Amino acid sequence: MKVRVRLFGELERFLPKDSKGRSAVVELAEGSTAFDLVRLLEIPYQDHEGCVAIAIGDLVVEHGKQLSEGDVVTIFPPLAGGLHRAREMTYPL
Question: Residue 77 burial by CB count (10 A; 0-12/13-18/19+): exposed, middle or buried?
């Protein structure tokens, strides 16, 4: 399946080499999760939930959220105040 990934801030350097701008289309196996995408892009992480914030569309999601064909996934550095707070909010992207 293919998803579009957008990276912000210091994470932009983890986009595939052939990317244009801050996004790229990435191919993943069916059933892949948002965290599988983090690992595929080789974004360093401390543990499963403590590295980055992930949104699908305009909703911040748990890292274990399963992706679907055509999803637009945004990954950005942790927000001030902690990731637990980010899960309770939506952000216009």
Answer: middle
CA distances from 9 to 43, 46, 53 (A): 13, 18, 12
Residues contacting residue 65 through CB under 8 Å, at least 6 positions apart: 33, 34, 54, 56
d(CA 68, CA 62): 15
Alpha carbon distance 67, 20 (integer Å): 22
Closest CA to 6 of 54, 55, 75, 79: 75
Taken in order of first residue, the domains within the chain and their CATH numbers are: 2-86 (3.10.20.30)
CA–chain centroid gap for 37, Å, is 7
Token readout for 32 is 């892949």
- Predicted model pTM: 0.78
pLDDT at 93: 43
Q: Which residue has the higher pLDDT, 31 or 21?
A: 31
